[in-house]
Batch of 4 targets.
Target 1
Amino acid sequence: MPQSREALQEKRKNLSSWLLSLPTMIWLACFFLVPYLIVVFYSFLTPDIYDVKFEVSLEAYRQIFTDGYLQPFFLSFKLAIYTVLICLLLGFPVAYYMARASEKLKNTLLILIIIPFWTNLIIRIFSWRIFLSYSGVLNEALIGLGMISQPLEIMRTNLAVILVMVYVYLPYMILPLYSVLEKLDFTLLNAAMDLGANEVKAFFRVTLPLAVEGIFAGTLLVFIPALGAYLIPQLVGNQRSLYVGQVITYKVKNIPRNWPMASALSLTLLLMVAILLLIMYAIYRRHLARRHY
Amino acid sequence: MKPSRAKLFKGLNLTAFSLVMVFLYIPILILIVYSFNDSRIISGWQGFTLKYYAQLFSNPTIGEAFRNTMLIAGLSTLISTSLGIMAALGLENKRFKARGGLLALIYTPLVIPDILMGVSLALLFNFTRVNTGMVTVLIAHVTFCISYTVIVIQSRLEGFDYSLVEAAADLGARPHYIFWRIKFPLMLPGIIAAALLAFTLSIDDFIITFFTSGRGFDTLPIYVEGTIRRGTITTINALSTLMIGFTLFLVVITKRIRKILISAL
């Protein structure tokens, strides 16, 4: 009977899929899912100097909402938003230029964007310290040119954090924008202009709506790491107003340790990301529903 | 064909592109120049020297951090790419019952900040009383690399030309022959791209390693951060320049790798 043979084949294919994916499933279950369950569990325990006491407590959550722990969340959120907006403003024209370049030039331009992206993160941050610090290159140059008399104190400010975050995450914005703009049919722009739209109007009515997917992808790729950043604020930021990533890290690394607090803060950050993703998804769905072409 | 009339933006875009290029490359160039600067602190140009490169090669701690980095990167690339190949082949079957669940498991780590994976793994190792060190770092690196390797290899399989496999089967080729002689070679660019991505991610990682490495097991980023914190930065410029050189070698000089990388984007 051919039907049962097909069913048998289907079963065998399913079995081989199971066997092939099982190692990855087990790995991610053990080292991705289970750790988060432990985070939830630890967030309800009592801290000890190096470890935790297995006594149930809601202290960590109470502290988050009463002891000024929300401040780092606001700061991280604010600077991450700034970073996304600047990346979008800078990244869009760059991606647009790349997408309209000749085929041969395109690859070179891509490589130019990718090289810094493939350079070690900590080195790129470190290079900004040389550039921005009190006796660094920027100050030396500006004083040498007679533009300023006192060195600018940019290092250890929120401005430095935003600058370095834009520097580090800009390729994450450019690459997805480039990949949608490259597929964009530019004759549509000419058509819009033939029908009387000026260049600015054509951009807002034709190019931008067609690039929405890239804008969403880029925004997420920049916003998520910017929100959870530790190394950038740690190396160039103002140490008097901490970032969420720094607070979480200190709770784990500094003695006395506070695992429950680190866990509760992590879950709060996770919740923020989840809410953001849901909002973005809802906006995206509405955008798709409104699109009739 | 009529040339585009979008003139205004064209000039604007070129300007933006040039500015961004300056922005992206100036710090790196300064870093390279300063690795030859004969000064112990961050300051103006004091004269040419190669002594920091000499110090770099005679420093045993840096040597050890370098070996640790390469060991972890090599092993985590091997493991995560192998797992990635298998999972991508498993996901090929669209009617696989656990497909949706597996995809969710693979994509979720990508939308969660790195630091949370670091904290959660640190907690896991604390809870299970495992001593942190090489093994825990390796586990962590494989965990964050898997998602990328599966996705890169799988995206290559999406556009796979199955008529080649069918033709081979019609001509009487056995399944394992078809796999190793036809399918695997066609998957290879995707596999190389995935492996390179995993390798770079592993070398680059600071935060997850910071949470999962014990005392006495430093990778290069961990060593560099510690050195910057202690303020003894003399060799870091030289070390950075060599690492940038390594990247340039990988991306620019090896033409084949470059082609694979571009096609994987």
Target 2
Amino acid sequence: MKAAVLLFPGSNREGDVARALKHVTGVEPAIVWHAETALPAGTDLVVLPGGFSYGDYLRCGAIAARAAIMEAVRAHAARGGLVLGICNGFQILCESGLLPGVLVRNARLRFICREALLKVERIDTPFTRRYAKGAVVRFPVAHGEGNYTADAETLARLEGEGRVAFRYVMADGKRDDTQVLNGAANSIAGILSEKLNVLGLMPHPENHVDPLVGPTDGRALFESIAGMLEKA
Amino acid sequence: MKARVLVTLKSAVLDPQGKAIEGALRSLGVPGVASVRQGKVFDVELDGGDSAKAEATLKEACEKLLANTVIETYRIEFVG
């Protein structure tokens, strides 16, 4: 498996996600600067890491979404290549149009930094196949703009096509759209593209891969990707 | 040529920042404020004096970057 982690000015989680990939899959990803116009030959997975690209100026992810490398990412996704956007990476994917909708200010205007409970909505995707059906996992969140918003038609399409990958849930494992930590529509924490090869999510699976620092619920996401690519 | 671009949230989109400002105005005792919506202003200087061309340029700028049309609308005004 060949992975590339994109680096924009203001990204700050590229090291963590690179470490998680190395830790789980044994393969060190390439770090690719945003001004590049091509991905390294043979790239299977592109990761857009968390952080504050361009200082969140204009709108979160808006300027990074127009970076030179994003044309190559678009082509990679169109070929069916895997793309994973975490936190600011998810915001960039939405701003670039690779995923629908947009992430706006948290409903209660607070930056939220804590662990979130998430339900894995489906396990027949390249990113979730190593999770148990209906699993509830713990990933940390750290964002000020994670409130997923889309028009009613887009939400209906996402739900109808089963493109919600992760949903925030309460302690009992059930969703409560009136109590979502950041106000996200339909408790959405992560969504997939139409062909299921692009995943964007606000929570950070890369934080939870090493028992030394806590839970390891994020491992299965990276194992899923690696397993998928080995099979291919 | 100078222009001003106003980007505002669509009316159906919740604006928590506007709501917070609205509440702050109320608590300051500023009378008669029914509601507040927050937006952005871009003052843009353009080369050349062709206003039709300038409008097309600004439209492109809005569609490509200045506004996210999923949640925002924009208005272009020429000043001076």
Target 3
Amino acid sequence: MSPLSPAPANATRVASPLEAARRYPPKPADVYLFGTCVIDVFFPGAGMDAIRLLEREGIRVHFPQAQSCCGQPAYTSGYTDEAREVARAQLALFAGDWPVVIPSGSCAGMFRHHYFELFKDETQTLKQVESLSARTFELAEFLLEVCKVRFEHTGAPVKLALHTSCSARREMNTHVHGRALLAQLAGVERVDHDHESECCGFGGSFSVRMPDISGAMVQDKTAALKGSGAAEVVSADCGCLLNINGCFEKQGDALRGEHLASFLLRRTASASTGGAR
Amino acid sequence: MSTLADTPAQPIAFTRNAREALADAQLRRNFRGAMDSLMDKRRNQFPDGDELERLRAFGNRVRARALSKLPDLLERLEANLARNGVQVHWAETVEEANAIVHGIAERHAAKKVIKGKSMVSEEMEMNHYLGARGVDCLESDMGEFIVQLREEKPSHIIMPAIHLNAGQVARLFHDKLDVEYTEDVDRLIQVGRETLRRNFFEADIGVSGVNFAIAETGTLLLVENEGNGRMSTTVPPVHIAVTGIEKVVEHLRDVIPLLSLLTRSATGQPITTYVNMISGPRKADELDGPQEVHLVLLDNGRSQAFADGELRQTLNCIRCGACMNHCPVYTRIGGHAYGTVYPGPIGKIVTPHMLGLETTRDLPTASSMCGACGEVCPVKIPIPSLLRRLREEAVRAPAAEPQHMRGQGAKHSKKEALVWKAWRTLNTSPGLYRVAMYAGTRLRRLMPADIGPWTRYRSAPKPAARSLHELAREHLGAQ
């Protein structure tokens, strides 16, 4: 079963919304990085910044070149068989003992929680799924809870807003970890924005299948981010950033969100390893 | 708006309805304001997150246990209600349910029915059915009364007229009830009550819904805030309660957590103003109450959900509406756009069982899967998982053998299925993936500026010059 919560008595499939209290391993010497397909094509810089942040903590990063997508697009669209085969390919690539760090909460949630559903009828595969799930960490969570980083802000004081993707929030608690990392930085004032926990309207294929509803949602989200008075916007999910930045650009606004990893690499030094990058 | 009595084979025009709703600034302001207020009220009722989680788990267990022995509980409910003098009727379809109610009305030569709030009666389109047969139905819940005057459907399962503001109600009452125009809400309620008051005494039959049907005691429990539920169930000589078969719980004590979850989640109230527990008609030594009490138990597709271990969780629902109040889609388009009796997240997972996936095939898709609904559901229905399952059923290749879900495969498209097969091949063939990424990044300038629905509200996404695979290989070496 998924580590989220025990299944209700009448359920055969489960994906409950809240991450239960998680136990964390000691900081490892090696990790896998799963880069995600959206980062691969649209935000490779964020992926590289995640790699460099991990290296800054003295960790060796392994990036299996055969990796592709976690399977989520097909899974949420109802194409379960297709999602399963893509998931199976990833399972085989991350079969070692190293933790798998993912700079995206929704893809991390897919590895950690939804592969159980995909492979529920395959007893042998479920063992691999259990191992992968236990070793999967969202980047901010990994830095905070496993590496126990202490970051120092090196730039000018800044007001910023943090947007957390819905699955990152509800499946991985990423908003908690992201806020905690930013709270370490003396020069960073994180400001709340209106309806902060509300979806930005991305939702993968939702943004294309229901364009008008999705459009109304992202317009509200960009207005809320602007209204917060933040000079910068960060998020740990590039799907949302694709959506939010695209809307800012369409509106002729200069504001762009960047990945939390990029912000952290650019604007902090690591006190946990005793040196800047 | 489509009617359920003559269900159209065409899919509900959800996207068109949604577009119209989004363009209605007044509607959007009304919903955003109302939903924000309801979310605040609920939040204030659950200051302790741990207590909330324990209570939700408790509520979930109570509902799951009741459903695990549903057939047995329904039989016990029937036996104990019969012992209390309540006549129990079973209806597989809304047509059967309406015929039962009409039969009772005919037997009493009833001309007038007063109704407390009941979503199952909306499911049945009872007002329409009885009205066409010379029996007038009048809604006595203030919100229902308002939507009935406007000849509309409820836009929310708890607050039927939540799409309207005071000014709109003021104009309605002025036009339809011939009263002086006033936006004073207290005065408006007074006007409504005066109109309704005499109807309670003139009605031949009172109709109500049921919140919980308690098997061990044969009791029908009904919560409300206006007193109209108590009036409808006690003043007319005949009371007919209508409810879905899933509303049964085993013990009276089971109601305690569910009631607490229901009122706090729905309206942010620790308890409703009225909690009615109906255990039979007027007894010989009693001075008031109806002479006859009937219960109509309606299936209407619930058995289909019940038959599947996962989909059965749909029936946990206690109809609080919290999923609607927290839904970013519902908040923006309101209830009418769904074109169904039950709107919002719960509507998207329950209606396909009632109407089939042919007409409702777009509803499971109308979600960004943000999970807000599942997070607030007081009985822990995994709504996003069930939406995903229904998407799977809708796009499944149509099968030759009898199907478990009505309308399974209704959204199947050979073209889309092929696209996903190609997607699978691309993402399971590293060589092919590498070529595609190389092409996608090198040809990025060919990305058109207009890519249909996406670019209506956003600029087109721009592939990077080089993929992460390439950059990582350069930085880390081939792995």
Target 4
Amino acid sequence: MSRVFILVAALTAMALPALGQDTRSYTAANGTFEIPVTPQRIVALNDQIVALPLYELGAPVVGSAGRTDADGNHFLRGGMDTLGIDYANTGIEYVGGFNGLDVEAIAALQPDLIIGGPYTDPGVAEQLQKIAPTLLINNNELGIIETMRAFADITGKTGNFEARLQRYRDNVARLRDYLGDPEDISVGLTFMFPEGAEMWVYKHSGNLGAIAQVVTDLGFREPAAITALSTNETNYSAELIQDLDADFIFGFYRQQPDATPANIRAAYEKFAPGWCQALTACRNGQFILLPGPTFGPTMAGLDLALELIESNIAARPFTPFAEAE
Amino acid sequence: MNQMRAPAIVSHKLRAWSGVPALLLALLAVFLLHIAVGAKPLPIQTVIEALTGFDSTNFDHVIIRNLRLPRAVHAIVVGASLSLAGALMQGVTRNPLADPSLLGLTSGAAFAVMVSTALFGAASLALIPWIAMAGALGAAAIVYLIARLVPGGATPLSLTLAGAAISAFLGAVISVIHLLNQDTFENLRVWLTGGLAGRDIALLAYVGPWMALALLAGIVLAARVTLLAMGDEVAQGLGIRTGLLKAQLLAVVVVLSAGSVALAGPLGFIGLVIPHVVRLYVGSDYRWIVPYAALAGAAYLVSVDIVARIAIPPREISTGIITAMIGAPLFVHLVRRRTR
């Protein structure tokens, strides 16, 4: 009993920093909460989906969930290649994995706001409410732009965000002019795991971060087989890989030892031997591996994805894919 | 009396022998079906051409020769191995619930592969089978030790309970390792659910000969398992060196279980269910149970893998998920049937 009392007292003491701040109501996926008008100490419950866009906005992130590499070192997934940040070169503290949060570590940081998402265990989110208002932002439903807009609104960094978004929109409009009629160009999105046992395919409206947003904004066409999928994303049979053929097919590599461009290409070959010969896009040099930040949910990712699309599709001649009748 | 028994034995032998060609035919049929059907419908003419005049620039031929054929071969080897290993374990431990996964062998092999990957990175193909065998052997030794130490010794019940405990423990440790090192183990996600997609045929070249030897040894030793299943005293009375026989059978089971894990990850229920199914036909004689289990297990896993590939195209389901979905209710049905 006394332990429970001490824990409650400790959690209450941790919550004290939030007292005395101006607050306002904010409605997130898990309810309406009183949050600081200008949060000073934010803990992100996911590195790639929350911490990176928050940091990019200039929000004061003091802690974040992260990953652990084979040597036991913690890192922010996508942090170095997207924004050049990691635990080591920022003041951000590691607070566990997104599905294995360290509640005590979060409490010790005395946050005044905690932000998670649909991947956050609801029970843990309830516990965290005792430390600071914990908002769950459903990034899957909102898409990356509305998620970033929500983060900007929550943190009060809206000016910077809207300016960058406007520049992105201007660049999209310019690129659409270069492309002529993007609806005539088909683009497929695939994701291969380095082990080569499984390949995923994404609809343009799917949850594949910046690249999905860019191909949607540009108005490219999906291969019919992808449009016909009943879900936004799915694993896909190797036998049917030719159904994905398009003018351009994108895959992804990451800044990890096992997910280099060479490893990912080898994984496609292991998954579907002869795949490159089987796909006209690949035979014509129009299967392109993009770097990890292009499927992350940041403005930097959006800008990078847009630039790579521009240089690979608009800035060079390509061989159109002729669909079989 | 003898005159009455003789026709019964002849009849049983006849019945048992008659099942062998039927099972071989069934295995051949599902093997050909596995090659002929898949997510992509292909004319039978193309299938024949791919087998008789392979053209590596024709992706339909590649589907047959490089995707379906190796996968079917993997399914035969793994299905036969797990089923035969289960049959031997049930005979040796006199425990109808024994199988490689329930007694910790599968978890031990999977655990060893996971730990070695965590410590040393992706292990080379040549090392994976040995690592898996070491893990399976270590888990078997711990299960046996625990069962020996409890009052009453290594009974079927204590072995089952110790195996379940070790499997659960190793499963938990695998989860912890996964949690601590998500990026490395994201790649092993499919393998951990038990799958035949994207398996490396080169690995089969490393493991295959050992597994073939173990399958052969299992069939050779099967007759003595029948005696062992009657009890150690009876077997010893009939001249069987039970300690040596158990060690030989353990080696066979470890090689088959670990090889299967290395090839397809931890697949459940095959070693548990298939021996019970074949018992319904051939009775309790392990001379028949063991080869029947191997053939039926191979045919079963090939069939299950067909379902995994074509059930909901363009998606694929992990073969291990289907074996569990079919195996669990099938096992309950068999238990209910036996208890009636």
